[in-house]
Amino acid sequence: MAIALRRFEEVRLEGVRRDFGSHNALRDITLTIKRGEFIALLGPSGCGKSTTLNMLAGLLSTTGGSIWLDKQRIDVLKPEDRGFGMVFQNYALFPHLSVRDNIGFGLKMRGLAKAEIKRKVDEAIALVRLQGQDAKLPGQLSGGQQQRVAIARAIVIEPPLVLMDEPLSNLDAKLRLEMRAEIRRIHNALGATTIYVTHDQDEALSMADRVVVMKDGVVRQIGTPTELYEKPSDVDVADFMGFRNRLRGKVETAASGRATVKIGDRQISGITHASLAAGQNAYVAIRTDDLVAGSANDNAFSATVETIEYRGREFVGTAKTQDGIDLIFHSPTSALIGSSVELRADPDRVIIFADGAGRA
Question: CA separation (Å) from 266 to 25, 91, 127, 251?
């Protein structure tokens, strides 16, 4: 591959903070990104992930802390002096310029010779598989093709860091899946370092080497997709890892990494990574696909079906217990609205967290 990204060892955010007036949007973000990593910033809207990305790009200034590229402090530099590649959510292509001119725009601004620009643009077009489309205008391309142009424009300048701000959110489901694989392929082919903002758990888990889960302007957990999926650090991280059933109860027993919690008139057991004691308030977290309808007497809830949807190979429904607890469950067969159902969770697939409210 002729495109050669600028080499470095690491990017560091040290105690980075961003305030908007009296609102503290980002607090004490400390993160080290190694060369070649694909990092996903994951979290709900307003959590600070795009703010973090924009401060890396230089589109927003920091209120506190510092950002380093190896030994060079870069948060004091202008965006153009950082030399990073940026892929925006809306692509930000020039509608009056051809694919070729859009991709080569940054190189032209840097004053490269025409022959050098042509060579580099040809390489970028080949890398993103847009051969034969280079004379078209953005309006003549599909959403996926426009996204490829935006990626090519970001990488053709050979940046040390590629920043992507929810680049797939405007694509349909099929294109999103295709572009996930394409973005990771391009990342691997270049040996790039990529920071990718998303609110989609599946995108983060399928693409990233490490995931940074954020909420309310703070980093809640950093880990590999496997670590976050299997051992979320708290109920908020668990929610992003698919544990949408979050139930509050009181610990009855806890020992050797396992606990049993009383919820309503039922006892639910699961694994725990917290120090729990009898009488303590706790949260039970269960993924929707781990709460399954069937005949069960243990580790189960009795509930009334409220909705049921066909999802191809299975059904997904909502139900409510006599205590008013809302549950989301999966079922191999349909269920009648208003019917009673037993919803069981395997204790090895249930995680129990300490409740910050302490003992009851």
Answer: 41, 51, 57, 12
Number of other residues whose CB lies within 10 A of the CB of residue 70? 13
Cβ neighbours, 10 Å, residue 26: 27
pLDDT tens, residue by residue, 311-336: 988 999 999 998 899 999 999 999 99
Closest CA to 272 of 354, 358, 351, 359: 351
Distance (Å, rounded) from C-alpha 22 to C-alpha 195?
28
CA atoms of 246 and 309, how far apart (whole Å)? 21
∠ CA 17-22-28, rounded to 5° = 15
Q: With beta carbons less than 8 A apart as the criterion, state whether 57 and 229 touch.
A: no
Read off the pLDDT of residues 277-317 as tens digits, 9 standing for 90 and up: 999 999 999 999 999 998 777 899 999 999 999 998 899 99
CB atoms within 10 A of CB 20: 11
Cα distances from 76 to residues 25, 29, 67, in angstroms, run 20, 17, 9
- Distance, in Å, from the CA atom of 312 to the CA atom of 180, rounded to the nearest integer, reads 23
Residue 36, pLDDT > 80, answer yes
Q: How far is CA 42 from the centre of its chain?
A: 3
Instruction: Please say whether the beta carbons of 239 and 230 come within 8 A.
Output: no
Closest CA to 150 of 205, 93, 203, 107: 93
Q: Output the six-digit token pair for 278.
A: 């009898």
pTM as predicted: 0.88
CB proximity list for 39: less than 8 A, separation 6 or greater: 31, 33, 194, 195, 196, 208, 209, 210, 211, 212
Q: Smallest Cα–Cα separation from 130: which of 112, 115, 151? A: 151
Would you put residue 359 in left (φ > 0), alpha (ψ -120 to 50) or beta? beta
